[in-house]
Amino acid sequence: MSFTEEFGTRVTVVDHPMVQHKLAILRDEGTSSKQFRELVRELALFEGYEATRDLPLEDVRVKTPITEATCKMVQGKKLAIVPILRAGLGMVEGMLELMPAAKVGHLGMYRDETTHEPHEYYAKMPEDIASREVLVVDPMLATGGSAIAALHYLRKCGVKNLKLAVIVAAPEGIRAVLAADPEVQVFTCAIDQGMNEACYIVPGLGDAGDRIFGTK
Ligand code: URA
Questions:
Q1: What is the mean pLDDT of residues 136-151?
Q2: Is 207 labeled as catalytic in the residue annotation?
Q3: Which residues contact 36 (CB under 8 A, 6 or more apart)?
Q4: How far is CA 145 from CA 38, 50, 122, 180, in A?
Q5: Is the CB of 162 under 6 A from ligand 1?
Q6: Are 191 and 174 spatial neighbours (Cβ–Cβ below 8 Å)?
Q7: 8, 175, 194, 28: CA torsion to nearest 10
Q8: Domain coverage including residue 86
Q9: Does residue 142 line the site of ligand 1, with CB under 6 A?
């Protein structure tokens, strides 16, 4: 069964030729941290386009230099971007370029060493997060553990409209996320083969956080 058949409309693969081109450079182990950061920002912006495709529009009257026209503008929908620390931070700038009025919440996750369950160690959300359309961002969706914990946290905060934007996803991670949250929409630039024994995505791009922040 293809991924399209398996995941249906709940997963969007943003596979525009420019996205695939940039992703190939991102994967290359020889790409510098500086270029890696720029590419993550650009890919986040492309994903933002797709993730905001369903925003409602309203008619506005505009006076052009020639005449008056009825045009469309995005309704005043309240948005929030929530990066999962730390690698998710790399996607915030690109998303904000597209949605400058969005608020940004931050969510830090750690993995309990005995239960291996992810828990939040830091959470700072906009006060009105429950009434916002929320886009959770993290470049890598591997096992899905952190993403699921983040989605669960935001549901507990009362968020109704939730989307998850990643750059590379493992099929296992997507399956886990879709099963854990029956409403969430997932956006990714690629669905890779799977994970290795260390839970790195294969072929993947290595540790996204280390490559963004140069901490290897
Ligand atoms: N997180 C990463 O940064 N890379 C992977 O391959 C998996 C999880």
A1: 96
A2: yes
A3: 26, 211, 212
A4: 27, 24, 16, 10
A5: no
A6: yes
A7: 70
A8: 3-213
A9: yes
Quick: pLDDT tens for 45-95.
Answer: 999 999 999 999 999 999 999 999 999 999 988 999 999 999 999 999 999
- Which domain CATH number covers 26? 3.40.50.2020
Q: What is the dihedral of CA 164, 185, 110, 138, to 10 degrees?
A: -20
pLDDT tens by residue, 159-190: 999 999 999 999 999 999 999 999 999 999 99
Say whether 205 sits in a helix, a strand or coil.
Answer: coil
d(CA 57, CA 75): 5
27 catalytic per annotation: no
Total number of domains constituting the chain: 1
Interatomic CA distance for residues 207 and 204, integer angstroms: 9
Q: What percent of the chain has pLDDT over 70?
A: 100
Minimum CA distance residue for ligand 1 atom 3? 207
On whether the pTM is more than 0.80, the answer is yes
The DSSP element (H or E) to which 25 belongs, if any, is: helix 17-27
Instruction: Tokens 């990643």: give the residue.
Output: 166
